[in-house]
Fold this sequence. Notes:
Blueprint: E1 7-13, H1 20-25, E2 33-38, H2 45-57, H3 80-84, E3 85-87, E4 94-99, H4 104-119, E5 123-126, H5 138-146, E6 152-156, H6 161-165, H7 169-186, E7 199-202, H8 203-208, H9 220-230, E8 235-239, H10 253-278, H11 284-310, H12 316-345, E9 349-352
Parallel strand pairs: 1-2, 1-5, 2-4, 6-8, 8-9
Antiparallel strand pairs: 3-4, 5-7, 6-7
Amino acid sequence: xxxxxxxxxxxxxxxxxxxxxxxxxxxxxxxxxxxxxxxxxxxxxxxxxxxxxxxxxxxxxxxxxxxxxxxxxxxxxxxxxxxxxxxxxxxxxxxxxxxxxxxxxxxxxxxxxxxxxxxxxxxxxxxxxxxxxxxxxxxxxxxxxxxxxxxxxxxxxxxxxxxxxxxxxxxxxxxxxxxxxxxxxxxxxxxxxxxxxxxxxxxxxxxxxxxxxxxxxxxxxxxxxxxxxxxxxxxxxxxxxxxxxxxxxxxxxxxxxxxxxxxxxxxxxxxxxxxxxxxxxxxxxxxxxxxxxxxxxxxxxxxxxxxxxxxxxxxxxxxxxxxxxxxxxxxxxxxxxxxxxxxxxxxxxxxxxx
Length: 354
């Protein structure tokens, strides 16, 4: 227990042999539950999980971790958690969970969230199974939630120049691109490094985001921000170092880019509808729609004008200027909508550099 709050940690694991055991053994003493999700690994990850769990159970804790009420095995196999995974009996504070089929990193996080929510953890932390996260920094994610300054806290490797310099260049470029797109889609305009998997979420926020409907592909963390914003949840962006070792990314970018881009667009439209049209009307949604429509119409008209000009059928200048004017009006409308969106959400964000 940390400052009178029970803490559950979710660790997704797929072929993390050689890493996952060290992560479990290094878990801070104040953590009450450790949900380790084996996503149908093909190596000895599962064996290493069980061995590390037994070693953790044998630790001599200065203060015995508080155990949350165990409700994980009381649903008779009727819940979504039971349908997608086998939840084994706890080994000490470690709850080993086996997926019935490979669901990817986002699917493993979702399973872990379902388990932590069922178990009643006040705060649920996510930690990668490859040892990239500095577990001594976990309290910096917990404190904003414990002190009621945030409902969700996440690590940010871009906020601090020293931490940013530690990130490989190819990751840095991709991260900046996703950061810009996620700012627009989520409405959290100060938040950066949306792909950071080191996070903490309150029980209230976990219940607000409709767990069973969470997106499960690699963009799950981006989509979660969209859901949090639509429900008015506060987010803390915490400067955090990353540790890069021998782990290898399994992301296939030819598949990743179109899927995540489509998800962000769909999530953005859903957020506008849910937050600004259905629950509380705000004209900024109309400025977004008007701007996007004007830009689209202007570009199509401009292309048509160019095509007909090449055929010698119409003057380029007259229609070209009209198309340009429509595009400019659309851009102004979009910028105005972004400004209003930024003002609407500024009180929902905080950045912690120290």
